[in-house]
Amino acid sequence: MPGHPARSVLFYMSILALLSSAGAASLSYLPTANPFLDPKDDPYNPLRYITSNTLTAIAFAVVMVIALVHTFSTFRYGAKWMLAMVIGEYTYMAGFGCRFGLHYNPDSEAVYIAEYLFIVLSPCAFIAANYVLLGRLSRHISCTDHVLLPSQRLTFVFVSSDIITFLIQAIGGGMSVSRSVGQELVGSHIFLAGLVLQLASFLTFSCIYARFLYRIYTLVPNVWERDKEQRWYFDWRALAGALAVSCIGILIRSCYRVAELSQGYLGYLITTEAFFYVLDTLPLVVAVSVYAPFWPGRFIKNEVFDVEPKVSDLGPLESTMRHST
């Protein structure tokens, strides 16, 4: 399963749906008379604020457009191995759809569970797609020897870590919505551990990617400049830049989530809607929307990854002849 990110995301979402339905079925409470009167002090309002329909509509529309563009790009240009990101965008969009429900029924824990799990866990799919992309990109330019790990092993290791951290977060998230104070506390700690491990894993990946680009730039300039005469959508460096931007967006969001949950479910960050959109939604939108113009399928086409010699092992003349054919 780690070698197939799209299947991994389907696995993620099936777990997420089960947790949502199970958690919702187990909760019962007496709502306040008027949940809109004082949401900040409403013990039944998990967000401690009334969601803004305007901001929700904007986020929902933007994510929907990105998902549709990426769906079209998948069929038009290929790169079905990026389906993990596409599926994750649709589930992420479903999370924003749930926020409309929270606006009208802010005390609904069933809606909150679905919203929270879809919003927080869907980015695991974005991360998995980036893990796969580095392996594909390194093979596309025949520079796998400049990645710290063999490309296939790199993909396996990091996608596996993504699945593990997803499961930790899913379990913690399911427990944290419990009415039992003790179970809620344990769940929040488990969830925070999953977020910290995910951040550590993705930060390690980002460092490996930065090292990969640095080594190509300094050690194999013929590869670095091989597409400089091509149009931008044929220059592998454009795709490399898109991946770098995506990594930065995901790192910003991951740091925010760790800081947010470290304050607890009643902390200032988690109970302020502006932080959610500025430090969570916006970085993730940037992380996935960057692939709209730089869809990997436009750069990486019909690859055959056999025992082909690496470009970095060829001389400048051989390299030029090879890429001119």
TrEMBL record:
GO terms for cellular component: membrane. Keywords: Membrane, Signal, Transmembrane, Transmembrane helix. Pfam families: RTA1. It is found in: Membrane. InterPro entries: RTA1. Its main location: membrane. The chain crosses the membrane at residues 48-69, 81-104, 110-133, 154-177, 189-214, 234-254, 274-294. Residues 1-24 form the signal peptide. It comes from the Eukaryota. It is a multi-pass membrane protein. PANTHER family: PROTEIN RTA1-RELATED (PTHR31465). This is Unplaced genomic scaffold scaffold_1416, whole genome shotgun sequence.
